[in-house]
């Protein structure tokens, strides 16, 4: 046992990099992950221009002001572009559940389990790789959005971008832990797919990513108000396009942070108990 | 270090509260031994291996590897063992070299050492020329050799091989065994293997256990097991039409004589020694030996004797889902 690292985290980067290589070393997959958010953003953000619905010929009504009172920003595209970041995050993290099932089916998981690598490291590597992928996609969206004239908030500084990545990191940790935990024992690839289909759109629409919460029916508001995606989206908007409300931002961070902490802990604890043959 | 590389005491696995896959098995494997684990599909071979390599918790009983309890000291066990699984578990999107390095990382071996070892192992399994090719382009034999290299990266003291030559052509099988023998000699490893190729087990294993229905039926050296069948079979025919049963029975070493279709089936230990005695005895009485043949019992006979001839359609044996998994692996890309 000489020359062997005794760190409890050994193998974490090796396993994470294994997942990432499947992505960045496959040109087609890599290209699609770049193109996908761009298509969504241009479709939902530019094509469906909500401000065009507000008549501009009524005296005393300025569409810009109306929109600002509804969305918090006068520019619908900017509002939507941030929603797209959340959308992409959710989508990418969902696939982490599938990779657990693949590894179980193909025997890779069994092999890893017979080595001294820690069970939590196996789970964390999947969480981390999904997180890094999401953060990369978020960066693409921000760049494209800026090119498409994203209107930044009045007190925006480039440092806020760091804050954006911090909150995306947290939500991705939480979400991928959730989807991995759901699939930790499943041997059928249909299970994660069914889970994805079930929660994908409800989670998205029951949040402020595409539509402001205030205008939702009460029951939906109740759901949207506990949905961590709402707080993620709000945090990113506060940092990029709103006139930052620091109290709200702090609460967003706390909410998403606690969500991430709890879910990651659950994932790790489940891995001790259920990650075996 | 304890004398035994592997020791089990009443090791048992029950699935879903009722399906007894492994039923209170006791055996020990000595240090440096090649131990063969034989049995029909669904007999409990893979389940036993899975418990020994610490990926499946036993329902009952104990087992230890090099004196480390598989439940209490599973980390120490994992550091000392290597596993060559039945499936092709290498990552198809990575190259052969990357796959071995990944295995090394799982053991926390420093890059400096793992790079050197990986190249040595690739050389050993004759994959150096393909080290930077993606595994999805490898043939079955190449993938099997890569699995072997991965299983050896941590210089294991005990190597588990689950059907290491399944589905390989004759050349690759021979090569695989050559590597394994070299390694055993060089590193003094203990090998625990399952196989369906009985002639391989016969040629390679120091000792063999036959398991069926989750229970170990018999353990011994290949020679002991073959002897347990009662010895060699000598078939004799004579020109004259007289009964020689009584005469033959008196000859030394002969255990049993049966007349069948005009020939005599004679069961005897040390057939090579007995056959000349038979010829001599017959000649003395004036009989002319027309035909004589000597058959040594093979492990096939031993195996069928102990496990019966009926085929097994056991449910989810681990072996049976092998084919399905291979299909899945192919479809993934």
Give the key terms.
heterodimer; A: 277 residues; mainly alpha; 72% helix; B: 333 residues; alpha/beta; Rossmann fold; Alpha-Beta Plaits; 2 domains; 6-stranded mixed sheet; 4-stranded antiparallel sheet; elongated
Summary, kept brief:
The complex is a heterodimer of chains A (277) and B (333). With 277 residues, chain A is mainly alpha-helical.
Please give a structural write-up.
The complex is a heterodimer of chains A (277) and B (333). With 277 residues, chain A is mainly alpha-helical. Chain A has one domain (76-274). Chain A is built from 11 helices and no strands. Chain A has helices at 12-24, 27-47, 63-71, 76-106, 108-113, 119-147, 160-182, 190-205, 218-226, 228-240, 246-274. The longest helix of chain A is centred in the first third of the chain and has 31 residues, at 76-106. With 333 residues, chain B is of the alpha/beta class. Chain B folds into 2 domains: 4-225 and 309-331, P-loop containing nucleotide triphosphate hydrolases (Rossmann fold); 230-296, 2-Layer Sandwich (Alpha-Beta Plaits), CATH 3.30.70.100. Helix content of chain B is 37%, strand content 27%. In chain B, the strands form 3 sheets. Chain B has a 6-stranded mixed β-sheet, sandwiched between helices. A 4-stranded antiparallel β-sheet of chain B has the order 2-1-4-5, covered by helices on one side. In chain B, α3 packs across α4 (111-124) and α3 (96-106) runs parallel beside α5. Chain B is elongated, with a radius of gyration of 24 Å. Chain B starts with a strand and ends with a helix. Residues 316-324 of chain B have low confidence and may be disordered. Chain A binds chain B through residues 1, 3-7, 10-11, 13-15, 18, 21-22, 25-26, 102, 105-108, 110-117, 276-277, and chain B through 50, 53-57, 75, 78-79, 81, 83, 85-89, 91, 93-94, 98, 101-103, 105-110, 113, 150, 154, 325, 328-329, 332.
